[in-house]
Design goal:
Layout (H helix, E strand, L loop, with lengths): L10 H4 L6 H6 L2 H30 L3 H8 L3 H8 L7 H12 L1 H8 L1
Helix pairs in contact: 3-5, 3-6, 4-5, 6-7
């Protein structure tokens, strides 16, 4: 392990790391938007994979899972296909179902 101290008052200390500042400065707003869209699409797929993994771990079909957590089956499909991202309470519920499925399902009944 190595400790590195970055001091904003000393620009030379900021060049340490994996960021190529010249490349960052040369990046256009259009390229940034393209990268952001790709990152968002990847995050949606990751969230979909997580939702599918939780559902399958519980041994439930999409329709059974939707009924148990009281959301439309179309919402489950959209999550799993990466069309929509679970947010707020749904995201928290998926985390609880992943960590403590029996307790979560008992509480939902």
């Amino acid at each position: 392990m190595a400790r590195v101290t970055l001091d904003p008052r000393r620009p030379a200390s900021l060049s340490i790391g994996r960021i190529d500042l010249a490349r960052v400065d040369a990046t256009s707003e259009e390229e940034i938007a393209t990268h952001r869209a790709a990152d968002d699409a990847e995050a949606m797929l990751d969230a979909g994979k997580f939702a599918r993994r939780v559902r399958k771990r519980l041994g439930l079909s999409q329709s059974e899972f939707a009924r148990r957590i009281d959301v439309p089956v179309g919402t489950i499909r959209d999550w799993e296909q990466g069309k929509r991202l679970p947010t707020g309470a749904a995201k928290s519920l998926l985390k609880v179902l992943n960590k403590a499925p029996e307790a979560a399902l008992d509480a939902l009944d």
